[in-house]
Write a structure and sequence with these properties.
Keywords: Cytoplasm, Hydrolase, Metal-binding, Nuclease, Nucleus
Strand content: 5-15%
Pfam family, one: DDE_Tnp_4
Oligomer: single chain
GO molecular function: hydrolase activity; metal ion binding; nuclease activity
Radius of gyration: 21 Å
Family: Belongs to the HARBI1 family.
Protein name: Putative nuclease HARBI1
C-alpha cells in the first residue's frame, strides 16, 4: 500500500474533504439558531459536547474554574476570555487535529496563531505543580489503597487492584540528532515514527492517578511497567511496615 506521505497534494485534499464532512455532520446535529452567533459551548447538546471535547459539562466546568485563576482578564491585545481559550485547547486535545481546524470550527472562531497561544496557555497551566498534585494523586497509604481496591470490587468484581496500567505512544517531532545522551534513533518506535512511550495508571472511576512520560518510543511496554511494579511492591511493603 502506498504511503500517503509520498503524495502531499492528495493527502491535503483528503484532509480538507474530511474536515468538510466533519463540519457538515456537526452542523446537522446543531439547531439552526445556534449557528448565527458565536456559540457558548455549554449550550451544546450533551452528546455533541462530549464528542467535541471528550469531557462532560460538569468536568469541563470544574476545569474552567481551575484555569480561570491563571488566565488574565481579556485586554485589547488579547480579547479571548478564559472559556474560549480553554475550549479551543480542549478541541485540539480531543481531536489531535490541525490547529486551524481546532480554532476555526464553528464553536471557537479564532485564528491559527491564537489557537497556538490557547494550546500553549492551557498546557502550561495544566503542568503547574500545584494542579498536578491536586488532580493526579497516587495512593500513598493503606487507606487510600484499600479504597481503590473496594472501588474495583464494587464496579467490576475485580479483587486486589488499585489501578489499571498501560502505555501509549505520543507522537513527537524528531529530536536533535547530536544529543549523545538521548540520540534520535531511540525515539523511533516499532511502528517507525518518533514518540514518547507514556505510562498511565487509572483508578476504577477512570481517573488518571499516575503519569510517567520519560521513556523514548523504542522502550518496550514490559520494561516500563516492570520498573513501576517493582517500585509499587517496595512502596507497599514500606507502608505495611509503618503501620
Amino acid at each position: 500500500m502506498a504511503n500517503v506521505e509520498y503524495y502531499p497534494a492528495l493527502n491535503m485534499l483528503n484532509l480538507v474533504a474530511l474536515q468538510d464532512l466533519q463540519e457538515h455532520a456537526i452542523r446537522r446535529d446543531v439547531p439552526h439558531r445556534m449557528l448565527n452567533r458565536r456559540q457558548d459551548q455549554f449550550e451544546l447538546p450533551d452528546p455533541l459536547f462530549m464528542k467535541l471535547y471528550r469531557l462532560n459539562k460538569q468536568r469541563a466546568s470544574n476545569l474552567l474554574d481551575v484555569v480561570t485563576n491563571y488566565i488574565p482578564e481579556p485586554t485589547r491585545r488579547s480579547a479571548l476570555d478564559a472559556q474560549t481559550i480553554l475550549f479551543t485547547a480542549l478541541r485540539f486535545y480531543a481531536g489531535g487535529s490541525y490547529q486551524v481546524d481546532a480554532g476555526l470550527n464553528i464553536f471557537n472562531g479564532v485564528s491559527q496563531p491564537s489557537t497556538s497561544r490557547c494550546i500553549n496557555t492551557i498546557t502550561n497551566i495544566l503542568n503547574e505543580e500545584e494542579i498536578q498534585r491536586e488532580w493526579i494523586h497516587f495512593p500513598e497509604n493503606l487507606d487510600e489503597m484499600n479504597y481503590n481496591k473496594n472501588r474495583f470490587w464494587q464496579k467490576f468484581n475485580f479483587p486486589n487492584a488499585i489501578g489499571c496500567i498501560d502505555c501509549t505512544h505520543i507522537k513527537i517531532f524528531p529530536p536533535k540528532t547530536d544529543d549523545l545522551d538521548q540520540p534520535e534513533r531511540i525515539f523511533v518506535n516499532r511502528k517507525g515514527y518518533h514518540s514518547l512511550n507514556v505510562q498511565l495508571i487509572c483508578d476504577a472511576d477512570y481517573k488518571i492517578i499516575h503519569v510517567d512520560l520519560k521513556w523514548p518510543g523504542s522502550t518496550h511496554d514490559s520494561f516500563i511497567n516492570g520498573k513501576k511494579l517493582k517500585i509499587l511492591a517496595s512502596k507497599r511493603s514500606e507502608i505495611k511496615k509503618s503501620r
